[in-house]
Amino acid sequence: MADSRILVAVPQHPRAEGAGAEQLRKIRDAVEADGFEVRWAVTAEDADAVLRTEAGLTAALVAWDLPGGAARRGGDGPGAALAPPSGTVGQTPGGAAVLRRIGRRFRDLPVFLIMPEEGVRELPLWVSETVVGYVWPLEDTPGFIAGRITSAARGYREDVLPPFFRALRRFDDTHEYSWHTPAHSGGVAFLKSPAGRAFHDYFGERLLRSDLSISVEELGSLFEHTGPIGEAERNAARVFGADLTYFVLHGDSTCNRLVGHFSVTRDELALVDRNCHKSVLHGLVVSGARPVYLIPTRNGYGLAGPLPAAELAAESIAARIAAHPLAEDAVAPGPQYAVFTNSTYDGLSYDAVPTARALAASTPRVHFDEAWFAYARFHPLYAGRYGMSVDAAAFPGPDRPTVFATQSTHKLLAALSQSAMVHVRPAPRAPVEHDRFNEALMMHGTTSPLYPMIASLDVATAMMDGPQGEWLLDEAVTEAIRFRQEMVRLGRRVASAGDRPPWFFGVWQPPEVTDPATGERLPFEEAPARLLGTEQSCWLLEPDAAWHGFPGLTEGHCMLDPVKVTLTCPGITATGEMAEEGIPARVLTAYLATRDIVVEKTDSYTTLILFSMGITKGKWGTLLDALMDFKALYDGDAPLARVLPGAVAAHPRRYAGLTLRELCRQMHDQLRSARLVELLDTAFQQLPEPVFPPQHCYQRLVRGGTERVRIADAADRVAAAMVTVTPPGIPVLMPGESTGTPDGPLLRYLTALETFDRRFPGFRSETHGVTIDEDTGDYEIECLNG
To answer: Where is region (Disordered) located (predicted)?
Structure first.
């Protein structure tokens, strides 16, 4: 079995001679006869390689006198500074290094330590806290020693499973007939047709057997929160640091809707980060609340930044409410709820407690939309940057608000798509009674949950529990840092080579960092990776720093997440200065797609890539190679038909005969002459005037009280549906807002975007809420009649 492997780390080679080696081989043979696989290592380095690659280990047998020093990146673990036993003065035994690595990689893995002669009294105290037993190979029979190891391994294999997944496996092992939904009855129905058989063979019987009905009482209830499901949710609350945790099977979008639906009611005020996901607006439509928008800062690349601290201040919020046309006849003068994005798409997170404290002066409920940040609790680099860090210890007293954190668990933790969680930390100001919150959950949930999704949430929780969670994240952080540094080094090598044009792609990050221990300023690419991986100060956005380009920030307010890597293209700076030549990011990402590299997000001159737990050096090395190849193609003015053959084939009249450099020149000139990035910034900073609450517009929409209007004819109309341009994925127009005058910021931007999309077919933005007339190609938006 894949989860039945045992590490044997001993100095003897498997074919070595001698009584000791022979006894170890007999122990190995007995372990294998008991159904386990053995991974044999003869040095600390070999053992480290096994530990890094074999997550299915269930036990380990380690020799204290194993050759080799501290395992890679493992010398900072427990006991690193303790004196070694006699006979090893001046060096750390390889066994100690392996034990430290095991402690960092696994939680409670049973480890047996092989000792030479007496030895135990000479061991550091931490060793006895790490191992479950000691082995003198020649003093007991091989079968007895193997039995001790495999017995512990079986117990660990069972204990390591989280509650719901353990119960689901047990149920699957009983091989019961199902007389309930779903009708495929464990996959049997699929076997009765050719297409169904192909489906069954592709996904496998185990998945289909675990697709069960809520009639299976022994697995518990998602809505009653009983049995193994309830146990799994309570375990997740412990691991994620919440008082209450709820599993949601329709993604963070549903989490946002249900929290909004619970927190604010019709004609109450809600404070909403304008850099919000559309599901936040859907929650307001359902609840009937009246949004008062808070405006984030933006930079020259067009990236949305954080809400500045000044925007969160009570006096600033009070001024916004006083000036808001829909606030005057709200049912209460103060907002009941505030929601903001943490971290943003581009990896910007807030100092959580000061942010919650600022908002608490205006509202009793604060919602951290952490769709892209479920991992923050599990690595010290993100300490204090996530919603559940706002507890009674960090924010004591009666002013503490109730805090919600909604997380798309599947995005950057290991869960199946659509798997999500809501975490709650109630405060006396705004109590959250389970039964009442559960009513909102049931309104937005399903009575036909997919059990493998629930199991994936349970397993994602278990993977983060204990030292292994930090270990998994540390790999992603470390690889992201290595890639970032290599990009800078590669850019410097290109610039100094002298045999090619000196430009290269950049990375959005500080050019220098400070070592807080010494005060020394270091170029980013020369800073020790361990410094960048542990010191939060290296990633803080210093006020008015040119590299990030955001105005109005205060010290410590905002941090850049290293695993969200934004590549920058030549053509514009973070402060908005445009160059004569440029390479729009849409062209770059179109080329990367031909290399089977799919990025997360593309703006005008930036593209976002994510370093998740599945990252490898080979993966990011392939990206580096593709970037260098694009540069060579651009510098050589390669024919577009060679670089982007799909675009030329789809639109031959537009692109036939063009070169890559010419396409980039045309697109850059269009962006620069139309000032598209600047217009986007203005549209986000100068918000449209609100006329009606969102719910009013939705009621008109479903009852035929709206019509589609060409953008050219949309002046001074009221929007009936949200308009969201992706990138950057932030609504530029909300239901109930006025479109404004023809020369106003909104229509000028949408007109410029329509012109760009017409001129560059195949490179258009994905614009939600905009339809294209099939006959004329005109862009249309939904507006209220009259």
So the answer is: 73-94
Map tokens 């939680």 to a residue.
107
CA distances in angstroms from 249 to 238, 255, 421, listed in the order given: 20, 9, 8
d(CA 740, CA 720): 14
Q: What angle separates helix 251-263 from helix 278-287, to the nearest 10 degrees?
A: 40
Q: Which residue from 463, 582, 563 is spatially nearest to 160, judged by alpha carbons? A: 463
CA triple 604-672-711, angle to 5 deg:
75
> From the first residue on, what is the mean pLDDT of each consecutive set of 10 residues in the chain (786 residues)?
81 86 92 93 93 90 84 37 36 85 90 77 81 88 92 90 88 64 82 90 86 78 92 97 95 94 95 91 92 94 94 96 93 95 94 97 97 95 97 96 96 92 97 94 89 93 92 93 96 93 97 94 95 96 96 96 97 95 96 92 93 79 94 97 96 96 97 92 90 93 94 95 78 92 94 93 88 88 91
Helix-strand-coil split of the chain, %, nearest 5? 40, 15, 40
Nearest to 561 by CA among 411, 414, 725: 411
Instruction: Determine how many CB atoms are found less than 10 A away from the CB of residue 672.
Output: 17
Distance CA 597, CA 276 (A): 27
Q: Which two tokens stand for residue 115?
A: 């000792």
CA distance 783 to 739: 9
Strands, sheet with 111-114, edge to edge from the N-terminal-most edge strand: 37-41, 5-9, 57-63, 111-114, 133-135
Q: What does the DSSP assignment read for 557-608?
A: SEEE-TTEEEEE-TTB-TT-PBPSS---HHHHHHHHHHTT---SEE-SSEEE
Task: Decide: helix, strand or coil at residue 534.
Answer: helix
3-state secondary structure of 304: strand
Cα–Cα distance between 341 and 372 in angstroms, integer?
A: 9
Rounded distance between C-alpha atoms, residue 31 and residue 6, angstroms: 8
28 closest CA partner among 157, 118, 135: 135
Query: Rg (Cα) of the chain, in Å, rounded?
Result: 29
Read off the tokens for 247. 């599993």
Strands 730-733 and 723-726: antiparallel
pLDDT given at position 74:
38
Phi, psi of 271 (to 5 degrees): -90, 125
SS (H, E, C) 439-489: HHHHHHCCCCCCHHHHHHHHHHHHHHCCHHHHHHHHHHHHHHHHHHHHHHH
Q: What pLDDT sits at residue 138?
A: 86
CA distance 534 to 279: 34
The total number of residues shown for the chain amounts to: 786
Indicate yes or no: pTM above 0.85.
yes
What is the distance between the alpha carbons of residues 643 and 663, in angstroms, rounded to a whole number?
11
Provide the 3-class DSSP secondary structure of residue 645. Answer: helix
3-state SS class at 230:
helix
Residues 6 or more apart whose CB falls under 8 angstroms from that of 733 comprise 688, 719, 722, 723, 739, 746, 769, 781
* Nearest residue to 27 (alpha-carbon basis) of 119, 110, 114: 114
Query: DSSP label at 102?
Result: H
Report whether 153 contacts 173 (CB < 8 A): no
Q: How far apart are CA 154 and CA 110, in angstroms?
A: 10
Residue type, 93: P
